[in-house]
From TrEMBL:
It is found in: Cytoplasm. The keyword Repeat applies. It comes from Pieris macdunnoughi. One of its GO terms (molecular function) is ubiquitin protein ligase binding. A zinc finger (TRAF-type) spans 44-97, 99-150, 152-208. Residues 44-97, 99-150, 152-208 form the TRAF-type domain. This is TNF receptor-associated factor 4. PROSITE patterns: MATH (PS50144), ZF_TRAF (PS50145).
Amino acid sequence: MCSIFDRTIYPDPESEKAIMGSVVYCIHHKEGCQWSDELRKLKAHLNTCKHDAVLCAAQCGAMIPRVLMQDHLRYTCPRRRANCEHCAKEFSGSALEEHQGNCGHEPVYCENKCGAKVQRRHTQQHLQQHCSKRLVPCRHCGQRYTQDTVGAHGASCARAPVPCPQRCAAAPARDELDAHLRDHCAAASLPCAYRDAGCRFKGTRQALDRHIEESCQAHLALVCGVATRQARQLESLRSALAKLALNQSGALVWRISDFAAKMAEAKCKEGVELVSPAFYTSQYGYKLQASLFLNGNGAGESTHMSVYIKILPGEYDALLRWPFAHTVSFTLFDQSSTPDRACNMVESFVPDPTWKNFQRPSKEPDALGFGFPRFVSHEMLKKRNFVKDDVLFLRVKVDPSKIVAV
Ligand SMILES: [Zn+2]
Ligand SMILES: [Zn+2]
Ligand SMILES: [Zn+2]
Ligand SMILES: [Zn+2]
Ligand SMILES: [Zn+2]
Ligand SMILES: [Zn+2]
Ligand SMILES: [Zn+2]
């Protein structure tokens, strides 16, 4: 019942009659009801006013204006009957609200974002069998890729088989192709193992086996040729090396080992001469050689050790000045363990230009050179540490200046 009747209309019973006869608008005038009549007819009007609220016809308990009842019953009443638009099953309103979001027939987007829409009940099957974003193993290498990229991976997969470029029947894995071509391909053209010796044969593995069997003689001849060429090269290398090893410093330190045995030999045989390695005074200089008579020679025979220097025919003699005019010094080292007390024996000379020893040597040089027959006496040899551990050191030094260096 409307509040107008309760509080405004009844407080004064005396004037009820007059009031009931007054003209009023329907209480739903603002909502759009055009009804207007005496107040006493209002109650009857409200029984049919389409804007007045009445209990839901489906007894959900809600008060609904008559004009909205159709909508309410169809769309919002929890007790309405309705069909799911996806599965077409009939539900009560509240059950349908629960059903929505769970209906197995509703198409939903794939959670892997492949872009596909599938019915909710089929999503598991889609993810496992059809989704383009599902992970599948590469059938060659076993690595997992999404289904839509595994094909592209195959084009570079190291384990995928590729056709042999030599067109043999094999299809080796991509990462084994090199080994296949090198070691296994039946169609590969291989060079003969004697290629470096000069054989030009090339052929398949089979043809090569046959060639090797048939070409023993030819191969042997090739290898022989190689050996000959190498021997020649070796020879020229050896002489180049000897040239490089030649002393060109102008100073020779001559080490005489087994001194006692050599001295004993010199004492019992006549004219035993020790000769040093040849050496050059400079890179393109004179070629010299020292000689040593342990038991002396000439004026020093049996009492002294004699030293001489010989000029040997050298490669650059034609370009050098003659006679030879460099100062030559001989030093016998005192090998005392206290270097301060060591006292070396030194002798030197400036060549006399009139001596024939200092002219350009012929191919057959003199047996004896120029030097000191009485270089050091046998007595002196014993006094100091000239011989130590049975070794004696003699330095021969050539100095381009003419000053005697002592
Ligand atoms: Zn009304
Ligand atoms: Zn209802
Ligand atoms: Zn449904
Ligand atoms: Zn998918
Ligand atoms: Zn792969
Ligand atoms: Zn092949
Ligand atoms: Zn061959």
